[in-house]
Structures are given as structure tokens and as C-alpha cells.
Amino acid sequence: MPADTEMLIRKLESIGELSDQDREALASLPVQVRHLEADQDVVREGDRPSVCCLLVDGFMHRYKVLPDGKRQILAIHTPGDVPDLQSLFLRHLDHNLAASAPSQAAFIPHEALRALMRQVLTLTELLWRDTLIDAAIFREWIVAMGQRSARSHLAHLLCEVFTRLRAVGMTQDHSCSLPLTQAELGDACGLSTVHVNRTLQALRGDGLIELQSHRLTILDWARLKEVAQFDPAYLHLRQPFVPTRL
Amino acid sequence: MPADTEMLIRKLESIGELSDQDREALASLPVQVRHLEADQDVVREGDRPSVCCLLVDGFMHRYKVLPDGKRQILAIHTPGDVPDLQSLFLRHLDHNLAASAPSQAAFIPHEALRALMRQVLTLTELLWRDTLIDAAIFREWIVAMGQRSARSHLAHLLCEVFTRLRAVGMTQDHSCSLPLTQAELGDACGLSTVHVNRTLQALRGDGLIELQSHRLTILDWARLKEVAQFDPAYLHLRQPFVPTRL
DNA sequence: CGCATCGTTGATGGGGATCAATAGCTGTGG
DNA sequence: CCACAGCTATTGATCCCCATCAACGATGCG
Predict the structure, then answer these.
(1) What would the mean pLDDT of A32-52 be, rounded to a whole number?
(2) Were B106 and a residue from A194, B54, B141, B200 both cysteine, which residue would form a disulfide, CB within 3.0 to 4.6 Å?
(3) Strand D bases, protein C-beta under 7 A
(4) How many angstroms separate the most distant Cα atoms in chain A?
(5) CB atoms within 10 A of CB B212
(6) What are the backbone angles phi and psi of residue B121, rounded to the nearest 5°?
(7) d(CA A1, nearest CA chain B) in Å
(8) Are residues B90 and A133, on separate chains, in Cβ contact within 8 Å?
(9) How close A188 comes to chain B (CA, Å)?
(10) Per-residue pLDDT at A52 exceeds 50
(11) Does the pTM of the predicted model rise above 0.90?
(12) Which residues of A touch B94 (CB under 8 A)?
């Protein structure tokens, strides 16, 4: 039976090495699994959670809403991620976390994680490392928002999501799930829905991608990567993605 | 005699509590102080440093340069910051770090920091917390880049820098040093130099700020904060800034 | 099958980029 | 002490990417 922590183990192995002891310790974490509807908030700005949320299956995103109602999506999360790991050390949350699509989440008590880290010191380092990679992704998003065109920015986002999904074995061939609406892609990139639509059409028209009914297929990785100026170094993966062909 | 680690202690005290033992351990860190010229790179993308850089006096910024030559500034650093603390756990740097103005930096061997954290476990948590706040600032920048107008974005940046400088006692009354050129402000906000210039003039013209010869004075904190929609919660300071008056 | 959400298309406008040139400031050397 | 060089700040003119407004299909679910 695949433990709920299987994806967490895969994720951590994609960014560092785990000993058998590490894996066992992770696998025996006490978790409580819950199903989440699309658009359901998991935790909100100002909350002081006492558990962390491990995404087991589905998609999540973190976001802020400004006083005038504008929403900015800050991060997109894939299975294996612990989007609110920071809540271990930051008293109150400064943003919201929601399921982007119907998802499975495993909730882990802070106390269990703290105990785990005291017990297995290598995991402290690896989890810290995970939050640092989280930050590296934020930096890359800042670059995208500040310097890239809509076309390049969207291409970059697609490259990133595909690469991260691939690192945890959630891609099939050259396609993956991407259950985000164009409105969500827009709020992630700081673009209007209309412009996201037109830009995606252009990417499709140029034969770079296929994107329909929440499934993304990369038709031309080399050119997509070039449009995006995508360099996966910032993801700090142990084995960077090398396209098999096509 | 003011130790070189004085600013680090102040910074950490602004985001958490230090025991006498913590302070002593920090004060006795072995450091090597170096003077840096304006625009001098400290570490570069791809480097694998074996020391961390503590900014003692001056300003620094982190940045990336795209293949087409565009520069995006990712963060602005003030005294007490350790801009490359992450290099402790991420093998290679994914961006550059440079002095924005003539600065003093204290370099601390990774080994000394690791030993410190093994010895004083509360500092592990506090340093981790520091990197998490670093990430929280990135998130707020993403919001600014995606959703705010140039006017609001620049106002927000000024609020942030002032608030952070104030937290470590580096402000005088309602003014502080801000040795950044308009080109640098532009690269931080994803705006052109020309537009930064005009927008700053508007902020000056509206009586919100004064900004000349690298000194910023806040003339109307309440209105500036409103223009910026600035809420310092994301800085996770122990005692948020309450304006004394004016 | 009706309604809501999502995706698509067209038309118009604006915020900010870009190009180009001038003025001010700072340091440096003769 | 001035002249010059180089950077920084400022101003004006023009353009374009993308936002916004407004409909209209498509899709899926109860």
C-alpha cells in the first residue's frame, strides 16, 4: 500500500539524498488525509496553523488578495510539496493556500515534524533546503514578472511546472496534468485572462505546446525552453531534466 | 568596541528573541571584514561559496542577468542581513550578489555557522526563520510586480526599505539612506529608468517623500503607506513600526 | 436542459517602454 | 582651480504591449 508520505519522499529525493532511516522516519509520520474541493482554501492569511499540509495528489496554489480585490498567485504546488512548511517557524501566515483542483492533502502536526527533525538531523537540513528552493522559485518568478514578455513568461511557467512534475514522476511522456484555468494562469503571471488566452493560442499555433482540458503536452521542448529562456538550475534538482527526444 | 556582528544581533533581535548565550555565541563568530566598492560583485551565479556574507554597513542587492542583458534586482539588503545565508544549504548560487554602494562586509565561514547551529539550537530556528522572511519579501515583490502600478510599487519599495532599516535602528527621524540609482530602482521594480524618474517626481510633487542625493525622507507616512497598500505583516517583525507622528 | 463557469474573439484605450537629447553632479588629472 | 569625462537625473515625443470592456461560443454539471 502506497503510504501518503510516498510523494513527500519522492520530492525530497529529487532535491537531496535520503537514507533508509530517513525514509522510514518520513513514512511513519502521523498524518491525517483529507479531500479538498477545487478552490477550497486550506489555510488563510493570519491563521496560525498547528499542522503542515502535504499535497498528496492534485494541485494547489498560494495567493494574496489586495484591498481592491486583485489576486496574485504566488506559487503553484504539485504533489510532494508542503506549501506551508514555513508555518513551522513563522507565527502567522501572510498569504492564503488553496486547492486549485480536487486534491488529496495529508496534514502533519507541527509537533511531529519538530520531533522528526530533532531525531533525524539530516532531515532538518533537507527540509530547510526545500524552503530555500521555494524561495529560489519566487526569485525566478520575480525575474519573469519584471523582465519577460507575456509569451516568454507563460512559456517559462509551463517549463517549470512540467519540470517539477517530472522530478516526482508525475509526467507521462511529454505531457502532464495542468488543472489551472486561464484566469489562474493570468493571476500567476500578472496578465489578464484575455491576454493569457491569446498568448496560449500563439504558443499552440507555433507548435510549441498543446493545452486542452487541463492537460499540457510539450510538442517542442527545445523551442519552448528557448522562448522561456528556461534554465532549471534554480530548481536545484539532483538530476536536471534532459529531454529524451522530440 | 562595536563588534562586526553587532548588526547581525540587532537584525536577529528584530525578528526573534536572543538569550545572552545566543548573543555571546554570535559575537564570537570568526569573521573577516572587507571593504567593497559600489557595484562590486561579492559572489556570482554558479559560485559555491564556503563563507557567508554579513552586511555590516552599506547596501547590497541580489540580481540576475538574462541572456539578452536585462537585469532584474531580486532583493535589496540592509545592514544586519546575510544575503547569501542560503549558500549553506544550496550547493551553487543561482544569482549574483553585489554591493550597491561602498560597504563593509563580514565574511563568516560556513563551518563556523554550522558549528554555531549545532551548539545553540535556538539559533538554527532563528536563522531558518530569517531565510523564511527573505522568502516572504520575495512573495510581496511578486505581488507588487504583478498587481501594482508603478506609483504604488515604488511607494511600496520605499516603505519596505524604510521599515527594515528602522527595525535595525538605521533611520534618523523620518529619513534614511537610500544609495540606489534610479536605474537600480527600475531594475528592482521592472520599470524603465525614465518611468522611475517621472513616478518619483509625482511622489515628491504630492508631498509624500523627499529623495535627493541618496537620502530618503518620508514626508507623509500615512498617505505613502496608503498609496503603497503597505502592510508590514509580511516582514514578521517582533514590533511593527508605529509612526511616532507626522 | 438550463445555468454557471470557462474559453474565445473583437474593439478601444492607456500605462509604461523606448528613443533621443539636455542638464546636473562627481571625481580626476593637468 | 578649472576642464573634461562619465555617470546620473531629467524632459519631450512616439509607440506598443497588454488591460479593459463587451459579447459570444463551448463545456460541464445538477
Answers:
(1) 95
(2) B54
(3) 7-13, 17-22, 27-28
(4) 54
(5) 8
(6) -65, -30
(7) 33
(8) yes
(9) 8
(10) yes
(11) yes
(12) 136, 139, 233-234, 236
